[in-house]
Amino acid sequence: QLPAVILTTIFTYICPHGSDAGYLCSEDSLAGNGCPLCNTRDLAQVSKVCRKWRQAALKQLYQNVRLEQVHYCELEEELWRRRNRRSFFSNGNTDSNEPVKTRMRLLYRTAQENEEIANMILYVKAPFWVREGCKQELTLLVSLLPNLRYVDLPQAVYVADHSCPLLSTLKSRSSQLRLMGWKGGSETSFMHAAADQPWKMLEIISLSSMKIDDTQLQTVLCTLPHLQSIKLEDMTYLTDALFDADETSMGFPQVKSLTIEECPNLTMKGIKQYLTIQSFSPILAELTLTNTGIIPDHLNSILSIAPVLKKLSITAAVSKPCPPVSQLRHISSTSLRELTYDISNDDSSKGLTAGAPSYYTYLADSLCSGTLPSLRKMSVNEARF
Fold first, then answer.
1. What is the DSSP string of 308-375?
2. d(CA 329, CA 114)
3. Rounded Cα distance, 12 and 61, in Å
4. Strands (E), 86-146
5. How far apart are CA 303 and CA 332, in angstroms?
6. Cα–Cα distance list, 252 to 232, 238, 249, 278, 307 (Å)
7. What are the φ/ψ torsions at residue 361 (nearest 5 degrees)?
8. Are 130 and 25 in contact (CB under 8 A)?
9. Cβ burial 314-342 (10 Å sphere, 16+ → b, else e)
10. Measured distance CA(139)–CA(131) in Å, rounded
11. Is there a smaller number of Cβ atoms within 10 Å at the N or the C end of the chain?
12. In tens digits, what is the pLDDT along the chain, a chain of 385 residues?
């Protein structure tokens, strides 16, 4: 006689991954959840007890589907022996993906026959070997899921490989998708996204090694009103003009998370300009800067105009020691809760005084000065820190 809310809470302990509503890939979202296949089996058995339990268990069973290749428990060893047992009808050579392909076909049949269940499925997570080896099955499954928000995709989708039909299926059937990425070679597909607008609900995008300029990127970004996170990696054609906001520019959207990696032409000037523009209603909570030319000398200039920044990560190579404290204020922020600090010596500085140790000393002095009162977590790449 328990209420449905309490039943649902109990069922989350039986099958923890069913309540995962994040956009992490299969490999990153598995930790601590036991064996997904066994958990799903157990919850399926529980759902057969009565109609009330079935209704409470359905969402937990189908909201987040994990297409695992193997069991992460001792049962896999026994199943492996059974699958590879030689018989009169089999020579013992089996496809390693055949078990998960069978599960995908069964799930496809369930979604095909039961529209309610098909509408429940929001997340489909699959390990690397499954999403790369079962593209056909994954394409068929996705075609039946109109409310799909996240799916682990093969690399062919990110580079817009036309031999992979999954991309066209996503464009036509998955209008609710929340995360998408583009890599080098998919420039044309990316620009078509501005005109076709297949995924207006995108919240997270990742761009890597693409040959597009500032205006082209702004053109696409302005068609995505729900963006919350942007990652730019190895985008050598982008410059500080990307953050311009005037009559001749469409501007860069305000987001909660911004990651810039290996983009040498995006400098401190552009970052400051972007933060200054949104200073009236700041929302940037996470900022990651990796090998952008921005070094700890610049951190105070960033933190002073980012009043709600909670997570900061900086990775940089320095060629000279940190300026003395008399010339550089301590790192200061009342909102910062998490800091990742990875400073190394530039290869071009061989034979000169190593600069990295002085920057770790600068960080230590800042911590001791009490100018980071909200800091709760910190990671540094220095064994003697």
1. T--EEEEEEEESSPPPPGGGSPPP--SS--EEEEEEEE-GGGTTSPP-HHHHHHHHHHHHHHT--TT-
2. 63
3. 10
4. 123-125
5. 7
6. 13, 12, 9, 10, 19
7. -65, -40
8. no
9. bbbbbeebbeeeeebebbbbebbbbbbbb
10. 10
11. N
12. 788 889 989 999 998 888 888 899 988 887 666 888 899 999 999 999 999 999 989 989 999 999 988 888 888 888 878 777 765 555 555 567 788 899 999 999 999 999 999 999 999 999 999 999 999 999 999 999 999 999 999 999 999 998 889 999 999 999 999 999 999 999 999 999 888 899 999 999 999 999 999 999 999 999 999 999 999 999 999 999 999 876 666 689 999 999 999 998 999 999 999 998 887 888 999 999 999 878 888 898 899 999 999 999 999 988 888 888 777 888 999 999 999 999 988 876 565 567 888 889 989 999 999 999 999 999 998 878 7
Q: Token pair of 12, please?
A: 């989350």
CA atoms within 13 A on the CB side of 303: 23
Stated length of the chain: 385
Which residue is listed with tokens 């157990």? Answer: 42
**Dihedral angle of Cα 322, 328, 333, 339, to the nearest 10 degrees:** 0
Contact indicator for 137, 105 with CB cutoff of 8 Å? yes
- Which residue from 219, 242, 229 is spatially nearest to 292, judged by alpha carbons? 242
